[in-house]
Amino acid sequence: MLKKIALLYVLGFCIFFGCTSTEDETPWQLVWNDEFDSEELDLNKWTFQYGTGEEQGLSGWGNYELQYYTDREENIFIKDGKLYIVALEEAYSGEDFTSARIKTRNKGDWKFGRIEARAKLPQGQGIWPAIWMLPTDEVHGGWPKSGEIDIMEQVGHEPETIHGTVHYGEDWPQNQENGASFTLSKGIFSDDFHIFAIEWEEDEIRWYVNDIHFHTVTPADLEPFNYPFNERFHLILNLAVGGNWPGDPDETTEFPQSLIIDYVRVYQIK
């Protein structure tokens, strides 16, 4: 409730005085949000994804991940106005780990906007949290031709660093990526909450951590490949275990690990 009051206050202030959030003073208007103030996940906004990706033809979700995604309260719940996505080490449906993954597809799909989430990240070898986007309509074809926007990814053995990336190009092995990393000057991302955002306009995507701009992508950066990011995308939140990027957990990895999300907000230009 306090978050709602604070958000209404900020919106009222912005309406009366005017607020901007980009480097060139472009105004943004809130069009979608989840403050996670309800007792359960709002299924009018989110859809659970299940299993290991086998049903989608993506064993290990295409990345050799080790977890089984569920909708159990052990793996995903709301507490004190925050969403918890929890990775557990346990035998479940033939796998050794469980976690959760949710998406907004066909419930929240956007073409351009400022997409931001305030989150506290997990840490540890083999832990892989992500706040990211996939194309809703796949206008240009299957992955990666229609693109992928990674607002925030982290490999847990580097807890002070996050990555912002786009994926594009042709079918493997001609798939491409363009990204950059952001490293905290002090501390690690599991110490406190941080705001991860993109500002996405026609022919340009900009990445931010705590409103510090650290990467930009335009069509020129993707040449000679097609720029697929002027279409509708939807949001995904997940916490993976293992995979070809972070590697497997080891004896140093502690469980449970949690991706804790305070809010998700989407703004578009008035």
Structural overview:
The chain is mostly beta strands and 270 residues long. The protein has one domain: Jelly Rolls, CATH 2.60.120.200. Helix content is 7%, strand content 45%. It has two helices and 18 strands. The chain has helices at 2-17, 219-222; strands spanning 28-34, 47-49, 67-69, 76-79, 82-92, 95-99, 101-103, 109-110, 113-120, 127-135, 148-153, 161-169, 175-183, 194-201, 204-209, 212-217, 233-241, 257-269. The strands form two sheets. Strands 1, 3, 4, 5, 6, 9, 14, 15, 16 and 18 form a ten-stranded mixed β-sheet that branches. The chain starts with a helix and ends with a strand. The model has no long low-confidence stretch (mean pLDDT 94).
